[in-house]
Amino acid sequence: MRRVLPSTQALACFESAARHISYTKAAQELSLTQSAVSRQIIALEEFVGVALFKRTRHGVLLTDAGHQYAKQVSRWLQGLERDTLDLMSHQGEGGPINLAAVPTFATRWLLPRLPQLAKEHPEITVHIDVQTRPFLFADTVFDAALWAGTREQVTRWPGVQALWLMDEEVVPVCSPQLLATAQQRDLGRAWLPVGPEVIAQMPLLQQSTRPQGWRQWFDAMGVDAPRALDGMRLELFSMLAVAASQGLGVALVPPMLIEQELARGDLIIACPQPLRGNRSYYLVTPELAADAQPSPALKVFSHWLQGRAQNPSATAKQQ
Question: Which residues contact 246 (CB under 8 A, 6 or more apart)?
Fold first, then answer.
């Protein structure tokens, strides 16, 4: 069956003219004449049977249909260009993976491990964009997503299959100086952990997206903590890590997200009693037809990622 597709030249002229709202600037960008750009857009309008531009005495303006179509064409052309460059760079071997990921997990856990992937599988390139909420894969260029949430949330994500990687556990962490001050110790003994009742007397850092985090931890430890809801509120784990390393308080953070701070001694685990929440990390991919197979690059990446997740607290250097 013949596909109903306009020429890429016409689409390129339309996308450029729509972006600049100018045939002249589009012609300059594409190294064409203004009349050539105009002919291509007229041909595109005749092909789709819809006016994309309004001609005025002062130039052109997008119609409502043209405005919506321009957004789609821009995304299609960017994807086509990216995939073409990836094919050229890999010469048909391996390939790219377009990955959506929650930011802190990508920055703190995945990126330090990607050099190992490059060493073991140089034919694979991972492109990463931030995405924190479920989405429809059909509306994006993503091949997979690294996502954090509950099992119930991931089962409600339509049209996907989810591979469990690891559960999320948090522990109290702070700077050595803060713990030494709280215990009136010299700095050389600051590394000795303390009990939950001591943490209850220290300044706490709150995660705004999990306002009950400290109360849940103290309840699990069986410790009364009247000030469990007090303290500076920050949104991301990465913000909590920086604030804690600066001595502003004790934070509840997954150790796997602060490997570098722990290795440098900027942060220490103040109390080694973890709290396992109901959140986990998953590799989410589009659901495939019964006779379909994932791309070879995605299959290799998925297997590699599972291997790294078996020991989530190990540092990237140890990997």
Answer: 175
- What share of the chain has pLDDT > 70, as a percent? 91
Whether 115 is in a domain gets the answer: yes
How many Cβ atoms sit within 10 Å of the Cβ of residue 228? Answer: 20
Give dist(CA 43, CA 140) in Å, integer: 28
Domain containing residue 131:
90-167+279-310
H or E element in which residue 127 lies: strand 124-130
In this prediction the pTM is 0.66
Which CATH number fits the domain that encloses residue 45? 1.10.10.10
The two tokens of residue 80 are 């086509």
Three-state SS for 255-300 is HHHCHHHHHHCCCEECCCCCEEEEEEEEEEEECCCCCCCCCHHHHH
Q: Give strand pairing partners of 173.
A: 251, 269
Q: What integer is the mean pLDDT of 30-47?
A: 94
Q: What's the pLDDT score for residue 187?
A: 60
Q: Measured between alpha carbons, how far is 53 from 305 in angstroms, rounded to an integer?
A: 48
To the nearest whole number, what is the mean pLDDT of the chain? 89
Number of domains within the chain: 3
